[in-house]
Amino acid sequence: MGGSHGVTGPFIVALGIRVALVFYGLYQDRSMQVKYTDVDYQVFTDAARFVTQGTSPYRRATYRYTPLLAWMLMPNIYFMEIYGKLVFIICDVLAAHLMHKILCLQGLDSRSACSYCSLWLFNPLPMTVSSRGNAEAVLAVLVLSTLFYLQRRQIVKAALFYGLSVHLKIYPVTYAFPIILSLQNGQQATENDTPTIRNKQHLKKGISLLNPMFIVRLLNKDVLLFIIVAGLEFLILGALFYCRYGWEFLDHTYLYHLTRRDIRHNFSPYFYMLYLTAESEWSSVLGLVAFLPQFLLLVITSFAYYKDLTFCCFLHTAIFVTFNKVCTSQYFLWYLCLLPMVLPHLTFSWRRGIMLLALWFTGQGLWLTPAYYLEFEGQNTYLLIWLAGLLFLAINCFILLVLISNYKKRNLQSKTNTE
Questions:
Q1: What gap in Å lies between CA 144 and CA 150, rounded to an integer?
Q2: Residues 6 or more apart whose Cβ sits within 8 Å of residue 139
């Protein structure tokens, strides 16, 4: 593991556990009524089968992803059906390797970095999600690669990974603004920068957004290079798939997620409102209005924390997931993959961290209880699920406030490589 001799053991063990889970899943799928394999994996595989037959992956109902994913999984049809799961668990461990590299760039020694990576390597959530056949680990690799190469100021490589990540799933587009802000100067957050000081300094710059000269200053060489490379990659991939699959590619890959109104129970505070107004003529409008809190919070966070891009992207993702119209457990991985790079800079004790973790799990447990009775017992617990979702929203907001108030960028000796 590039430059981390003596710490490869946890990575090998973590990979072994994931491989064992994949093969255990084969047993459970054959012998038990409740299947281990995620239903999305069956959707991916069916879509890949249509591609091998020369037709559209969107012939598979509920396939709402880029055709690139179906193309990637064609070996599921030609080789073996668990091929995709093996790819996903390898990406899961590769994501931890990228976390390790980023932590080392921040100045941590290899063993300390490995201890933080273990929080991902041996976390039951990513282990289970990837081994069941969910593709979130692929996106984690792309996002972490973007941050890694941005920290090394290798703009072209970062832009290529970023463009691909936005093509794969739309949510990383929210990182564009803090990335642009971070590239318009080479300053980094320092040890003496408290959250209050940074907020005052950067929110003043936010007020100058209406100033045309501020916009001009943003468009320096690095920013233009990043925008051109990432933008061209995104447009080229989009054009290729549009030529091949037409409007259904744009509709299922992007537009569906913008207009989506999921009335099934989920962690989102909006689900009950969308459920009650599903037949209303205002339903579409309410779905779009739900983006407003996200947008305002993301803009404020961009100006306040862009100098510390990793922390800014963590906050962005946590805010996006917490206030999204749809929120399921797998969405938590979007920000959990950034958490190990944030933890070394938190000033509170491990005991308080464990208390916050317990609070987070308690919030999920309180939501899962009425959700169980709805899904498996057929009881009408929609109101209780919504109230539990509001409590979980409050818990997440409280945890984010604690993290922000206890975050202090340590003055580590960065090993940034500008080659």
A1: 10
A2: 165, 168, 169, 172, 334
Q: Looking at this protein, which amino acid is placed at residue 228?
A: I
Residue 175 has a CB neighbour count (10 Å cut-off) of 25
Return the closest-CA partner of residue 68 out of 242, 245, 241.
241
Q: How far apart are CA 171 and CA 164, in angstroms?
A: 12
Residue 306 sits at the vertex; the CA angle it makes with 304 and 310, to the nearest 5 degrees, is 120
CA 53 to chain centre: 32
pLDDT digits (tens, 9 = 90+) for 182-237: 987 654 444 445 554 454 555 455 445 555 556 666 778 899 999 999 999 999 99
What is residue 207's three-state secondary structure? helix
Pick from 97-106, 207-216, 251-260, 321-330 the range whose average pLDDT is largest: 97-106
In 250-345, DSSP assigns E strands to: none
In sequence order, which residues have a C-beta less than 8 Å from that of residue 293 and are 6 or more positions away? 323
pLDDT in tens, 247-266: 998 888 888 777 666 656 68
Contact status, residue 146 vs residue 157, Cβ threshold 8 Å:
no
Alpha helices in 152-220 (DSSP H): 155-168, 176-183, 195-207, 212-218
Q: Which amino acid is at 260?
A: R
Strand partners, 407: 346
- Partners of 346 in the β-ladder: 407
Show Cβ contacts of residue 251 under 8 Å, excluding neighbours closer than 6 positions: none
Question: pLDDT tens across 24-57, in order?
Answer: 999 998 998 888 999 999 999 999 999 999 999 9
Q: Are 106 and 316 in contact (CB under 8 A)?
A: no
Q: The whole model's pTM is what?
A: 0.88
- Alpha carbon distance 166, 115 (integer Å): 30
Q: At what angle do helices 382-405 and 309-322 cross, to 10 degrees?
A: 160
41, 66, 114 from 130: Cα distances, Å: 10, 19, 20
Tokens standing for 110? 């290899």
Backbone Cα Rg of the chain: 22
